[in-house]
Here is the input.
Amino acid sequence: MDVRLVPFGERHLPGFEGMLDDPDVKRFTRLPVPTPPGFPRTWLDRYEQGRRDGTSDAFAVEDEAGEFLGCVMAFGIEADARTGELGYLVAPAARGRGVATAALRLLTEWGFDERGLLRLELMISVGNVASKVVAERAGYVKEGVLRSLYVKEGLREDHELWSCLPSDRSR
Ligand SMILES: CC(C)(COP(=O)(O)OP(=O)(O)OC[C@H]1O[C@@H](n2cnc3c(N)ncnc32)[C@H](O)[C@@H]1OP(=O)(O)O)[C@@H](O)C(=O)NCCC(=O)NCCS
Here is the structure.
C-alpha cells in the first residue's frame, strides 16, 4: 500500500472529524467521548504547538491522489531521553488494506531519522487486535502489559506496551 504522510493541516480537519464517531476510535483511543464542541480545531492547535516546541506532531495519511485515509501522531516526545509515543487512526472505509502498517512504518522512520529518537512506544488496549497486528508488522516488539491504564474519563483498561528501537529495523 503506497501512502504518504503530510503535515496535518486545516484541510484535513473534515476527514479527522469524520472518524470521531467510529466505535473503534471511541473505544480504543484517548480521543474524548462525547466529542466536545470545536474539538478537531483544539486537537490541531495542540499538535501545531507541539510541532513548534518539538514535543509532538501530527500527519495526515494520504494516498497517491491526495485522498485522506487517516492520521498518525507522535506525542510525549522527550528531547533528552530521545523517546516518544506514537498513535494512528485509519478512516473506516480505508481499513484492512495495510494503510496503518504502511503509515506506522513511515512515522517510525521519521521518529528515528528526522527526530533522532532512540525509543518509540505504542500503548495498545489488550482488546485491539487490529492494532497489535499493525504493531508487529511494523517491527514493534511487545514488552508487557500495563494494568488498568487510565485512557480517558470513564475508561481504564489493560494495555500492552510495544516498542521499536533503531536496531529493530534490521530484523
Ligand atoms: C487499528 C487500525 C489503525 C488498523 O488500521 P488498518 O489500516 O485497517 O490496518 P492494516 O490494514 O494495516 O492491518 C490490520 C490487520 O489487522 C487485521 N484485523 C483487523 N481486525 C482484526 C481482528 N479483530 N482480529 C484479527 N485480525 C484483525 C486486518 O485483517 C489486517 O490484517 P490483514 O492485512 O492480514 O487482513 C484501525 O482499525 C483503526 O483506526 N482503529 C481505531 C483507532 C485505533 O484503534 N488506533 C490504534 C490505537 S493503539
